[in-house]
UniProtKB/TrEMBL annotation:
UniProt record similarity statement: Belongs to the MICOS complex subunit Mic13 family.
Membrane-crossing segments per the record: none
Top-rank taxon, per record: Eukaryota
GO cellular component, as recorded: MICOS complex; mitochondrial crista junction
Topology in the lipid bilayer: Single-pass membrane protein
Subcellular compartments: Mitochondrion inner membrane
Regions annotated as coiled coil: none
Protein's gene: micos13
Alphabetical UniProt keywords: Membrane, Mitochondrion, Mitochondrion inner membrane, Transmembrane, Transmembrane helix
Protein name (Swiss-Prot/TrEMBL): MICOS complex subunit MIC13
GO terms of biological process kind: cristae formation
Length: 113
C-alpha cells in the first residue's frame, strides 16, 4: 500500500513546488508586463546580495562576494528591438524566398547543361 502511495506523494510534491514557483513569479511581477518585469529586476538586485551574505554567515563561510556589475539593461528596450527585428525579417521573407527560388532554379539549370 505504501509503495503505491509513494508516486502520488512525489507527484503532489512536484506539482506543489511548481505551483509555488509560478505563484511567486506572478506575485513578484515577473509574469506581468515589461514595466513590472523591470521593477522586479530592480527588487531582486536589491534583495539578493544581503540574502546571500546572511546565508553565508549562517553557514559560517567567510568569503567576500564580488560586487555586482552595473549593467544598464532595459527589458522594455530589449523587447521592442526583438519585436522590430522579427517583424523586419518577416516582411523580408517573401522577397528572400523568391530570390532563393530563382537562384535554386538557376543552379539546377546550370547543372543540367
Amino acid at each position: 500500500m505504501a509503495t503505491k502511495l509513494l508516486p502520488v506523494v512525489k507527484l503532489a510534491t512536484k506539482v506543489g513546488i511548481a505551483g509555488g514557483a509560478v505563484y511567486v513569479a506572478y506575485d513578484s511581477g515577473l509574469l506581468g508586463g515589461s514595466e513590472q518585469g523591470s521593477e522586479a529586476l530592480q527588487k531582486a538586485r536589491a534583495a539578493v546580495p544581503p540574502a546571500i551574505e546572511e546565508w553565508m554567515k549562517y553557514f559560517g563561510l567567510q568569503t567576500q562576494l564580488p560586487t555586482i556589475p552595473n549593467v544598464e539593461f532595459s527589458p522594455v528596450q530589449a523587447w521592442n528591438s526583438g519585436v522590430r527585428w522579427t517583424i523586419s525579417r518577416l516582411s523580408e521573407a517573401p522577397t528572400k524566398a523568391s530570390e532563393m527560388t530563382t537562384q535554386g532554379f538557376q543552379f539546377v539549370k546550370d547543372l543540367l547543361k
